[in-house]
Specification:
The protein is of the alpha/beta class. The chain has four domains: 6-111, DnaA, N-terminal domain (GMP Synthetase, Chain A, domain 3, 2-Layer Sandwich), CATH 3.30.300; 137-313, Rossmann fold (3-Layer(aba) Sandwich), CATH 3.40.50; 319-384, Helicase, Ruva Protein, domain 3 (Orthogonal Bundle); 391-485, DnaA protein, C-terminal DNA-binding domain (Chromosomal Replication Initiator Protein Dnaa, Chain: A). The chain has helices at 9-12, 28-54, 74-96, 109-116, 135-150, 168-179, 198-212, 223-235, 239-247, 267-279, 300-307, 319-333, 339-348, 353-368, 375-381, 386-390, 395-406, 410-414, 420-435, 441-447, 453-469, 471-485; strands spanning 58-63, 66-71, 101-106, 188-191, 218-222, 251-255, 283-288, 310-313. The protein has a five-stranded parallel β-sheet, with helices on both faces. The protein has a three-stranded mixed β-sheet with strand order 1-2-3. The chain is globular. Bound molecules: adenosine-5'-diphosphate and magnesium ion (MG). Residues 198-199, 255 line the site of magnesium ion.
Amino acid sequence: MDKINLNKYVEKFPKPSTNDPSRTKFSHDVDDIWKVVSENLRLSLGHRDFAAWVEGMYLETVGNGVAVFSCPEQFKKDRIEKNHIRLFEKCLLDATGEKLHILIKVHSPIEKKEKSVQYEYHDPTAGSPLDLFSESEKQERAKEKSLESSQLNPKYRFSNFIVGSHNRLAEAVGRAVVEKLGLAYNPVFYYGDTGVGKTHLMQAVGNEVIENDPSKKVVYVSIERFLNELIESIRTNKQGAFRNKYREVDLLIIDDVQFVENFPKTQEELFHTFNTLHQANKQIILASDRPPQELKNVTDRLRSRFQGGMVADLQSPDYETRMAILKQLAEEKGIAVPEEYLELISKNIDNNVRELEGALTKVISLISLGESLTEEEVAKMLQIDIESKRKRMTPSKVITTVSDVFGITIGELKGKRRTSYIALSRQVAMYILRSELDLPLEKVAREVNRKDHTTVLHACRKVEHLQATDPRFKEKLHKCLKTLSE
Ligand code: ADP
Ligand code: MG
């Protein structure tokens, strides 16, 4: 299996060795990109915001579709992720010509020290000459045993996890964890809406770890079960057993962490368990339907623990990825499904892989009964209202909506006048055409009767800046987006 490695860029941009712990020196390429990007950030954000949020950061690496930044403080990272991520993306796009996923790491000196501690594993089952089983039989048996005690579902693998722009970073992080268990990113906190593949990905990591080394102890558990066991152990005074069970693992995978909200009283104990594992460089992977900062009823200490490693999101898959997933699923089930049906499903079910699977299963069940269906019939069965979906966001709807919300005419929006209010409305339209419809720059320019695509870039930067700094503007922009999504 070919491995995706976050560090692949190293080949492209060899890192000169240096002992300076505060700032590793990278090749000129990355430095050059950073120069351009930071200059543009300074221009867009203004001197004050730049100094407040960006200063002290640097670009570590670029490669494999990912730009990794290093940031000196968590709150800066949070702020940037919350308000300026699009601006970062745009500036990187301008500088590299590539749409890069952004990853911001926080480098505290303590973390560096922790990371440098090596965890040594001693295999207690190491061979004796008296063993009755051959080496490969032993491996197989060990694998089975590990799998069984891990509670992993063996069907979730990297090999059947389709990667697209919506989950590329998350998958790369998962692969890095397999390669450097406990030492690459710890903890890993995945978040994303339901059905986007969090459980699949985390279990793929677990399965791969056991596949590579059956002596590794992996445990997959939901947070509810984990905390219930914890509470039970406190109640029955058997905390020792609980600790042994969970602190002896090499990889602990905790799913659906959002339910920690229902257990406000056990957080202290959870925090300690967490710390013990973390300090021993035992890998922890968590998944939740929202990022740590949006979890309610969580103490700051626990929250910052969640945030202390790598937080990576999984988004809804784009059209091409939805098609790829459907094709793979149909193949797994051994049924040839007409392309039109797959397209119909991919076009209309756009936020959730689980629903995608459900729709395909319905279609497959009819096909295997020998039914031949028209597209309309398939749509009806899947309760897809083709008409209403067709009415969704189009360039002309964007322009009408923005004109409406800003109270100007379409003629004015597409016209020559440059009064600041009209220009701003036009910029909002450009921004939405670019960011929501993903139109190429030239096409965006054409939609508002402009020739030059740099106008569009400028518009996007400005809208992003205002969105971050002007609440009234932000409200208007959101009104446009909300109207458009109805
Ligand atoms: P979540 O845990 O985020 O709610 P799951 O991991 O349970 O989502 O995914 C829902 C279903 O979709 C699962 O059957 C999973 O195998 C499938 N799935 C999700 N993402 C992918 C993907 N990228 N490639 C293949 N199958 C996927
Ligand atoms: Mg899940």
